Request: fold
Amino acid sequence: MSLAPLIIVSGPSASGKSTIVRRLLEGPWPLRLSVSVTTRPPRINEQPGVHYHFWSVPEFLHAKDQGFFLEWAEVHGNYYGTLDNEVTQYRHLGQGVVLDIDVQGAEQVRKRCPDAVSIFIRTSRFETLEERLRQRHTESEDAIQKRLTNARAELARAGEYNYQVVNDDLESALASLRAILGPLFQRSADA
Reply:
């Protein structure tokens, strides 16, 4: 029996990847979002177990040492990780899994799960990322600058992904992603 698709979605802060993933989950395929673990504090309106599993640093490091993570990374000064049990059991049950993860985590998953399909979300202009970050009004200037520095490094690794999708227009980006995902679920159903 073939496993359901594992889809990695990465992109710099403000590329729109979370919005895109949320919209894909409304689509026609059996697809779920893996809920990541983070050590950063919740933002306004974020619910534990829905947006993230919010853990302390000692809890995270203990789980890492026990080998519970499919991938993990330190990003923007906080730890993030994907629990193996958020992925494998669902794929065996025929449900595709989307990982909304950074480039470090994506590299780890590609090594452990070579059948994963990786998609990098970007904008056509770097300045668009900065504009979107500033429009959020959720972060300090230092945090914005850190995210922009990280965005440059992430964009430099976009070529490591199977696909790159430009998100200047949400509907166009979604159409591109649906064109990528459709055949994956068809292959999974045919197997």
Q: What stands out?
A: Strands lie at 6-10, 31-33, 37-38, 53-54, 69-75, 78-83, 96-100, 117-122, 163-166. The first strand starts at residue 6 and ends at 10. Helices lie at 17-25, 57-65, 88-92, 103-112, 126-136, 141-155, 170-190. The mean pLDDT is 92.
